[in-house]
Design goal:
The chain has one domain. Strand 2, helix 2 and strand 3 form a beta-alpha-beta unit. Helix 1 packs across helix 2. Helix content is 33%, strand content 23%. The relative contact order is 0.29. It has three helices and four strands; from the N terminus they run βαβαβαβ.
C-alpha cells in the first residue's frame, strides 16, 4: 500500500532513535508533509528537518509543522487536510 503524501505523527513517547529510519522511508516514499503533535513535537519536527537536509548535498524538501501542547490530534489532522495542489489527498496518522 502506498504511503500518503501527508502524515500526522502523533508522538506518544517523545523523540526516539527509531525516527531516523521512519523519516528515511518517508523520503523514499516522497512524503510531502509531516505534522507532529504530542510529546516533544517541536524537537521531533527539528529532527525531521535535519534528516531531510542531511549534509546538504542531496537534501529533500518536506513541509513540516509542530503543534503546541494545547493542540489536539484532531487539530493537527484538520491542518494537514487544508493542503491542496501537490499535497491534496488523504492524511495518514502514525503513532510514535
Amino acid at each position: 500500500m502506498a504511503t500518503s503524501r501527508k502524515i500526522v505523527l502523533h508522538s506518544l513517547h517523545g523523540h526516539r532513535q527509531e525516527l531516523n529510519a521512519i523519516v528515511t522511508q518517508w523520503i523514499r516514499d516522497q512524503v510531502g508533509y509531516v505534522g507532529v503533535v504530542g510529546v516533544d513535537a517541536s524537537k521531533i519536527e527539528d529532527a525531521i528537518d535535519d534528516l531531510c537536509v542531511g549534509d546538504g548535498s542531496n537534501s529533500y524538501f518536506m513541509v513540516t509543522a509542530s503543534h503546541s501542547s494545547d493542540e489536539t490530534l484532531q487539530d493537527a489532522i484538520f491542518f494537514a487536510e487544508q493542503f491542496s495542489g501537490e499535497l491534496a489527498g488523504d492524511v495518514s496518522v502514525v503513532e510514535f
